[in-house]
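User: Sequence recovery, please. Input:
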């Protein structure tokens, strides 16, 4: 059955980007599994979202019917990217590790889609995600190795994305990690080979 697939790119390295290579292969595998799927791509390098301002935050907490024209304009981009997320059946997020975390352009996207009343709500028992029933694939790249060993404690990359997606109700999350790319002459080659194996396993698990 065709799916609505949302692809989020955040690398600034263009054709040299390892995370973009993993994203492209992930999308190709998904399109092969779900022929006829609709794909929406949001490239945060080419079209970065602005960081939140006081005006945008004020618009978040002002009922739509009460927003001034200025507040309506301020929230327009956030509404667009939030609608994209909610319309998707599958989300593919490409993210290189920068300083142990995600690029700031991707964090800005998170800030725009983490919306009380739209993608999550607070109940008497705590927060409840409203973006349920979706599958996410994280196409991650790293110069070093963080899934195991002494640097594992510095991984705020996979762990952050899983946490924020889970908060929004997206708990079916598969990380495809190309790491160790800068470690030795064959680092990038080995990283891609490992990511391809992870991807095959993840796609096989998909419904």
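Assistant: Recovered sequence (207 residues):
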């Amino acid at each position: 059955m065709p799916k609505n697939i949302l692809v989020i790119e955040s690398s600034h390295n263009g054709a040299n980007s390892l995370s973009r290579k993993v994203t492209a292969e992930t999308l190709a595998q998904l399109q092969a599994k779900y022929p006829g799927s609709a794909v929406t791509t949001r490239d945060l390098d080419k079209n970065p979202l602005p960081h939140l301002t006081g005006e945008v935050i004020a618009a978040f907490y002002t009922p739509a019917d009460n927003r001034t024209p200025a507040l309506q304009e301020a929230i327009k981009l956030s509404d667009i990217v939030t609608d994209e997320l909610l319309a998707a059946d599958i989300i593919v997020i490409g993210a290189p590790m920068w300083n142990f975390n995600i690029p700031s352009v991707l964090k800005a996207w998170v800030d725009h889609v983490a919306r009380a009343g739209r993608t999550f709500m607070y109940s008497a028992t705590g927060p409840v995600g409203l973006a349920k029933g979706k599958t996410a694939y994280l196409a991650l790249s790293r110069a070093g190795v963080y899934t195991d060993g002494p640097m594992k404690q510095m991984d705020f990359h996979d762990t952050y994305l899983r946490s924020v997606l889970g908060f929004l109700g997206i708990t079916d999350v598969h990380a495809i990690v190309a790491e160790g790319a800068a470690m030795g002459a064959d680092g990038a080659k080995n990283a891609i080979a490992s990511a391809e194996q992870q991807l095959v396993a993840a796609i096989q698990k998909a419904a």
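The chain has one domain: 4-205.
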